[in-house]
Structure prediction request, 392 residues.
Amino acid sequence: MDKRTKITVVGSGYVGMSLAVLFSQNNDVIVLDIDSERVNKINNKQSPIADVEIESFLSKDSLSLMATLDRETAFDGADFIVIATPTNFDPDTNYFDTFSVDNVVEEALNSNDEALIIIKSTVPVGHTKLLQEKFNSKRVIFSPEFLREGQALKDNLYPSRIIVGDHSEKAKKFADLLIEGAKKDQIEIIYTNSTEAEAVKLFSNTYLAMRVSFFNELDSYAEVHGLDSRELILGVGLDPRIGTHYNNPSFGYGGYCLPKDTKQLRANYQEVPHSLISAIVDANSTRKDFIADSIIAKAPKVVGVYRLIMKSGSDNYRSSSIQGIMKRIKGKGIKVIVFEPVMEESEFFNSKVVNDLEEFKRLSDLIITNRMSDDLRDVKHKIYTRDLFNDD
Prediction:
């Protein structure tokens, strides 16, 4: 491309930062955020999130990347405005809270007459179309992101696919920008309407949640009947139609996307006959109940929780499944302590945080961990985990 494009990315979480770094290899990128600490970190070439690839790329001088708190600076002259602000599931409304996305869309349309506005935040099916109608503008489109926490930039450098919810020339240019920044050859690109693109995101994550739930329920069955869960999973997975991926039992699916996306898809099914989607949501609670009951049956006085984070290489423990386990066992009067180095607080929901690992091991009668760690090998007799393959 002859001319460097100006791209504004709103939000500096996993989605926003991975895209900002990807685009800034070949274009001029501004990250807009409301958190001054995050803005300062980016301008000092430090990543506000835990991602090895992002940290490595930020250390290079070749990126054209800056961050700002000022919306006017961010929106002025931008060719593309990418929205990557959080959308949390609101249990009261049974729907995503899209306020931050809607607010940015309105401000971007009012501040810039030319830019294509691309929503990367996950939204309910049909939401982008509603925004197009509300603001009488076709410059708002949706393009889903398929990223893993801790490997967000890697997943943009080597994308499984690129889906853009529009067929316009400017939408195709946006796809070209994604391809230009990637290292992978022969990337599959699909152009759809935005509503179909929204549905792809929710159905993809719900399928992954279903797979997690299936192998978790297989593991529960094996536990109850005294069977070797690992042998069962290996035997099932060697069918090439099933495969040996995404099959490691856990305390339940958690993290930033799967819990809220499955609930949102279920909400979108209100007028459609269904049973499977609701079962996927309910299965996660059933698994947490089973894990908690298994821990309670061991009658520990003090349970140590080793790491709240969901995955290695991540610093995010939002909606992690182990929190649900904590709540259940604390409800039975069992004392819980936490080892989580990424936390600066001394307590987590009234549970003491003990970040001296040796003291943590000594104080704990039983240590629960969603994923096994070499740090715990010397107290293996105290460990409760369902990690069979040492894999996320």
About this structure: The chain has two domains: 6-192, 204-384. DSSP finds 14 helices and 16 strands in the chain. The two ends are 38 Å apart (CA to CA). Residues 237 and 245 are 8 Å apart (CA to CA).
